[in-house]
From TrEMBL, chain A:
The keyword rRNA-binding does not apply. CDD domains: TM_PBP1_LivH_like (cd06582). It comes from the Bacteria. It is found in: Cell membrane. This is Branched-chain amino acid transport system permease protein. It comes from Geodermatophilus telluris. Its main location: membrane. One of its GO terms (cellular component) is plasma membrane. Pfam families: BPD_transp_2. The chain crosses the membrane at residues 6-27, 34-54, 60-82, 94-115, 143-162, 190-210, 222-252, 264-283. The lineage of its organism: Bacteria, Bacillati, Actinomycetota, Actinomycetes, Geodermatophilales. One of its GO terms (biological process) is amino acid transport. It is a multi-pass membrane protein. The keyword Cell membrane applies. Keywords: Amino-acid transport, Cell membrane, Membrane, Transmembrane, Transmembrane helix, Transport.
Automatic annotation (TrEMBL), chain B:
InterPro entries: Leu-bd, Peripla_BP_I. Residues 51-404 form the Leucine-binding protein domain. Transmembrane segments: none annotated. Residues 420-446 are annotated as: Disordered. It comes from Geodermatophilus telluris. Residues 1-22 form the signal peptide. This is ABC-type branched-chain amino acid transport system, substrate-binding protein. The keyword Signal applies. Belongs to the leucine-binding protein family. Keywords: Signal.
Automatic annotation (TrEMBL), chain C:
This is Branched-chain amino acid transport system permease protein. One of its GO terms (molecular function) is branched-chain amino acid transmembrane transporter activity. It holds the Pfam family BPD_transp_2. Keywords: Cell membrane, Membrane, Transmembrane, Transmembrane helix. The keyword RNA-binding does not apply. The chain crosses the membrane at residues 45-63, 69-90, 122-146, 153-172, 210-229, 260-281, 309-326, 346-371. GO terms for cellular component: plasma membrane. It comes from Geodermatophilus telluris. InterPro entries: ABC_transp_permease, LivM-like. It comes from the Bacteria. It is found in: Cell membrane.
Length: 293, 446, 382
């Protein structure tokens, strides 16, 4: 029983981590219709910048703010410099550009910060709460992670639903010409979308770093896959979907690890994704009508 | 090149290399032992009058790079030191290592390059089981000595099929046996849980341990390297009531399992195999947590482990002092770490092999030298090598120790054994100290 | 995935009439557009046969005039190019993205490894055909699921395939060797091959050379078959499915069926590529079939020029040689091996980005486009 509880709690935490990453992917998808493979590497480099500050004696919170700001700048610069020219072109070109960025940024992290593991100390205690004689796989820090992810989800939903900027961003993504006619400054919206996504990505990077405890330049690699799967599972259009998709995936993988075997985690992700997509080709929370096949 | 022709070649070589023991003429002092009156010749591929070229593959980028990418820098430092002191028989060692990112397709590509284009004399210390497994057939069919693979897999000990391939470190099975017997004798009532890396390392280690612990094992949990969430595994061990956990895992998973156990309030006796213990590295990873949320300063205190070569947590060890000197002289960035010490220990063995192979060795002479003299080499290892014509396995044993503060205390004498159901025995040899010059001085075998 | 196509062809022009449009359309169809100006036969099959023979002669000259180290590299190019050729049919012609072809290669690779390991292995040709057949079967299953999915959803599903499938090798470690993989015994070199090489260049062939020849032969045969398929009714149907869903359906084409067929064809190529990989690398292990492999294949077809076999080949050459050239350049600048490896990846990534920015139709596509433009300008002037 205790194992089941801990697997469930662990799954929720891992799921929250996937969700954090999926949120950033959803944001970029909503604003530019591009799946950003460089998301993980961009988040990792901001985490390493923050970690360097923390190691030099700054507090976690200073590091977090710097990471988010760095994410903002990197996101905007990347969009203006290399994404803008391929926007509206063949879809795969944008994919290859983000793949190129991924390879380059990840290698750059090794050059700048070295390849070895570094310890990343969480902002709150990671010791599990105790219930009677048993410790739960739930600690103050995991509450912080969960809270942060839910906050971002609510914030993004509100942004898209209730604000003019959010509306303008959605309009720019879906119909550039129409948006332009209506006076939306489409270019600016696209840059804003990427910058915001990179901020969310940086936050995800920081949260994930605290959960995995030891970071290397490649620490986000597994997240790229599972974060993407979570985003697709939820339906790429919906922040709520990303979080639900992340949590579902996290729980499933935790049970598979605990009861079946670590080797089949990837396969389990494949099976659940295929089953869900066969029933709902647009993901669990797809808002648009499924296209005719 | 068939096996029989190799034997023939080494026989011919034996007949031609003069066995006089005149002092090494020219080439600078202290260098290789022996050395005949003859001139240096370009006696085979990769060897010239004044150079000898050695190649290797390591993960320098990607997921396996942390730690492992330091090994070749240690090797580099030691070879630089030897070169600065006259090289081997007056020959300078050229050390070429390339990145394979721990991907077998890359490994086969870079080893092709090393053998066919760089034309190395021998491969040394190729790292990793799946990676090196991709190239042993090629190296053996090309007749390239494939010495001292950096992996404890038993695949490298196969003189029939792979006459050119040799292991170096104690294989995971004998380590598992030594650990298993120690636990069975000292913790007869313990409920044992296994925490295993999901490859031959975990498998062989578990197989060795099970020879003694079959009845005591209550849980067996495996992780796939790259997954950073071991909560499910540690929870399962805890749920099974294991009060002693044997870990066959790499250092980062030692740190991870310790922190996860702490989070779950799980406190078994931990016993990490040699690969995973590395107190200096794990300690430095965990140290940052002692400042923050984790209160216990010495998480690893009391953890059991095994050792077969000196480690940097014993700074008074004469070998470590030598390595420290060599490392400082090399002027490379970073500290002396256990990975670098590992590289230096292996480089030391390589020099012994080259010296034993004689003044103008062929590739086959090198292999014959390891087979004939390897078991008698005295070096940094606590136990002797098992090399012979029928056995290409590395070190024969290790000792069990307990991590105490920054150092460790030995709990057993050096224990030696062999694969299968060979007995575990105490090794009666003396502890070795490095020669004054820091460079071995082996006689040529022929 | 209608975004895949170019603005010009989206406007409704039949692809073969619009050779000036970028990427897939121009790459796939310019042969016909320029066919009248070449000295090659007009009959497609004859023309392709002639090209095949010329390429085979060229390959033998190349393999015999270069050293063994280069021969060995050719094997790597070959397996990348075979898989990329299949993928460019799927993605370029039929408009379906796949991030999971590395997993399909694993199916072919493991089949080959297991069958070569038998007491008395079957002839190599049979083994290769078995690898192709089995992978096609897996491809059909994946294809049925994939036919219902679009864009990022298909990308996500195939990405999960790339990560999930190799896990089976870890789980069934008794048969599939687990993490350390299955070593692949090199197939015996037949006597006639030894003789042929001896008369050809006087040297005695090694195992490396034999495998290089097998790889190149597989590559040429695959490209010959794919080229014919692309120029046939099947190819035209795929293009119709990609560009004109509604019109194609009205014309009685079943979209789903043709998408599955495209997946099966590209899976067959991936299976053969996996078989060649097994021979070249001499090992099949999960770490050899990671997501990196799948993404590399995609990179090869886009960088080379989507929808073009020649583009897939160029992309594969780049994939094999570029990182190495960069690394060697780094080492010649006095960096140590680790630094050189890291820096080479930085430069490699930047090159991918730059190519996409300045040659959006891929290398082959962009050059072809430039040629067509200058020709159009000339004819306009004259």
């Amino acid at each position: 029983m205790q194992q089941f509880v801990n697997l469930t709690l662990g799954g929720v935490i891992t799921g929250a981590v996937y969700a954090a990453f999926a949120l950033a992917l959803v944001l970029i998808w909503r604003s530019t219709r591009i799946v950003n493979f460089a998301q993980g590497a961009m988040a990792a480099i901001t985490t390493f910048i923050a970690l360097s500050l923390i190691e030099s004696g700054q507090s976690y919170w200073v590091g977090l703010v710097v990471a988010l700001l760095a994410g903002l700048v990197i996101g905007a610069v990347v969009e203006r410099l290399v994404i803008r020219p391929v926007e509206g072109g063949p879809e795969l070109n944008a994919v290859i550009v983000t793949l190129g960025l991924f390879i380059a940024i990840q290698a750059l992290i090794s050059v700048l910060f070295g390849v070895n593991q570094r310890a990343f100390v969480a902002p709150f205690s990671t010791i599990g709460f105790r219930v009677g004689d048993n410790s739960l796989a739930l600690s103050p820090n995991t509450l912080f992670t969960l809270g942060a992810v839910l906050l971002v989800m609510v914030g993004l939903t509100a942004l898209f639903r209730f604000t003019r900027v959010g509306l303008a961003m959605r309009a720019s993504a879906f119909g550039q010409e129409v948006a332009r006619l209506l006076g939306v400054r489409v270019g600016r919206m696209l840059t804003l979308g990427w910058a915001l996504a990179a901020v969310v990505g940086s936050l995800a990077g920081m949260l994930i770093a605290a959960e995995v405890t030891f970071v290397t330049p490649t620490y986000m690699d597994a997240l790229i896959v599972f974060g993407f799967v979570a985003a697709v599972l939820g339906g790429l259009d919906s922040p709520v979907g990303a979080v639900v998709g992340g949590l579902l995936l996290g729980l499933l993988l935790s049970y598979v690890r605990g009861y079946v075997g670590d080797e089949l985690v990837g396969l389990a992700a494949l099976v659940v994704l295929v089953v869900v997509l066969l029933v709902r080709p647009g993901g669990l929370f797809s808002t648009t009508q499924t296209r005719r096949a | 090149m068939t096996r029989s022709s190799r034997r023939l070649v080494s026989f011919v070589a034996a007949a031609t290399v003069a066995s006089t023991l005149a002092a090494c003429g020219g080439g600078g002092g202290g260098g290789g032992g022996g050395g005949g009156d003859e001139e240096n010749e370009a006696s085979d591929v990769g060897i010239t009058e004044d150079t000898i070229r050695i190649g290797a593959h390591y993960p320098l980028t990607g997921v396996a790079a942390p730690g492992y990418s330091e090994i070749p820098t240690g090797v580099q430092a030691y070879f630089d030191y030897v070169n600065a002191n006259g090289g081997v028989n007056g020959r300078e060692i050229e050390w070429i290592y390339r990145d394979d990112a721990y991907n077998p397709t890359n490994t086969s590509q870079v080893v092709n390059q090393l053998v066919l284009e760089d034309e190395v004399f021998a491969i040394m210390g190729g790292l990793g089981t799946p990676t090196h497994n991709a190239v042993t057939d090629f190296l053996n069919s090309e007749g390239v000595p494939d010495l001292f693979v950096s992996s404890g897999s038993r695949l490298w000990d196969d003189p029939e099929e792979k006459p050119y391939t040799f292991g170096w470190q104690p294989d995971y099975e004998i380590e598992g046996k030594i650990i298993g017997q120690y636990v069975a004798e000292n913790f007869p009532d313990a409920k044992v849980g296994l925490f295993l890396q999901g490859d031959d390392f975990g498998e062989d280690g578990a197989a060795g341990a099970k020879q003694f612990l079959e009845d005591q094992i209550v849980a067996e949990e495996t992780y796939v390297p790259g997954n950073t969430d071991v909560r499910p595994q540690i929870s399962a061990l805890q749920a099974a009531g294991a009060d002693l956990v044997l870990g066959f895992n790499v250092p980062s998973y030692t740190a991870l399992s310790q922190l996860t156990a702490l989070q779950l309030g799980y406190q078994p006796q931990w016993f990490y195999s040699n690969v995973g213990s590395d107190p200096a590295l794990v300690g430095s990873l965990l140290a940052r947590f002692s400042e923050g949320a984790v209160s216990d300063a010495s998480l690893l205190d009391g953890v059991l482990t095994t050792e077969y070569i000196p480690t940097v947590d014993t700074p008074d060890d004469p070998w470590i002092q030598l390595y420290q000197r060599v490392w400082d002289e090399s002027g490379q960035e970073g500290e002396l770490t256990n990975y670098r010490a590992y590289g230096m220990s292996m480089a030391y063995t390589m020099i012994q092999a080259l010296q034993s192979a004689g003044q103008n060795p062929t590739r086959d002479d090198l292999v014959a030298a390891v087979e004939q003299a390897g078991a008698d080499w005295e070096g940094p290892g606590f136990a002797p090598f098992r090399y012979s014509e029928d056995k290409h396995a590395g070190y024969s044993g290790m000792l069990v120790s307990r991590i105490v503060g920054q150092g460790s205390e030995d709990l057993t004498p050096v224990l030696v054994t062999d694969n299968g159901d060979a007995e575990i025995e105490e090794y009666d040899g003396e502890a070795t100290t490095p020669p004054e010059s820091g460079i071995p001085d082996e006689e040529p075998v022929n | 995935m209608s975004d895949l196509q170019t603005p010009a062809s989206a406007a409704g022009a039949a692809t073969s009439d619009a050779p000036v449009s970028a990427t897939a359309a121009s790459n796939a169809s310019s042969a016909q557009a320029t066919g009248g100006r070449t000295f090659l036969p007009r009959n497609t099959l004859l023309r392709h046969l002639l090209v095949l023979v010329l390429c085979a002669v060229g390959a033998v000259v190349l393999l015999e005039s270069t050293d063994l180290g280069f021969n060995a590299q050719i094997g790597y190019v070959a397996y990348y190019a075979i898989a990329a050729g299949g993928l460019t049919v799927l993605t370029g012609l039929n408009g379906q993205i796949s991030l999971g072809h590395g997993a399909l290669m694993a199916v072919g690779g493991y089949t080959t490894a297991l069958m070569l390991d038998a007491e008395e292995p079957l002839p190599l040709v049979v083994i290769f055909l078995a690898a192709v057949a089995l992978t096609s079967l897996v491809g059909a299953v994946v294809g049925v699921a994939a036919a219902r999915l679009h864009g990022p959803y298909l990308a996500g599903a195939t990405l999960a395939l790339a990560v999930g499938l190799p896990g089976l090798a870890l789980y069934f470690k008794e048969t599939l060797g687990g993490e350390q993989g299955l070593t692949v015994s090199s197939p015996d070199r037949p006597e006639w091959f030894t003789e042929a090489i001896r008369t050809l260049s006087g040297g005695s062939p090694s195992g490396v050379k034999w495998i290089a020849y097998i790889s190149v032969a597989c590559l040429l045969i695959t490209y010959f078959l794919l080229a014919n398929l692309m120029r046939s009714r099947v190819g035209r149907t795929w293009r119709a499915v990609r560009d004109q869903e509604v019109a194609a359906e009205l014309a009685g084409i079943s979209l789903g069926t043709w998408r599955v067929v495209a997946f099966v064809v590209s899976a067959a190529a991936a299976g053969l590529a996996g078989a060649v990989l097994a021979l070249v690398v001499r090992l099949t292990a999960p770490t050899a079939f990671t997501i990196v492999l799948s993404l590399s294949l995609l990179t090869a077809i886009v960088i080379g020029g989507l929808g073009s076999l020649f583009g897939a080949l160029v992309g594969s050459v780049l994939l094999v040689f570029l990182p190495r050239l960069l690394r060697d350049a780094g080492e010649s600048l006095d960096m140590d091996a680790a630094q050189a490896a890291e820096i080479s990846y930085v430069v490699y990534g930047v090159i991918l980005v730059v190519v996409m920015l300045f040659a959006p139709a891929g290398l082959v596509g962009s050059i072809r486009l430039a040629l067509l433009r200058s020709r159009a300008r000339r004819s306009a002037r004259g």
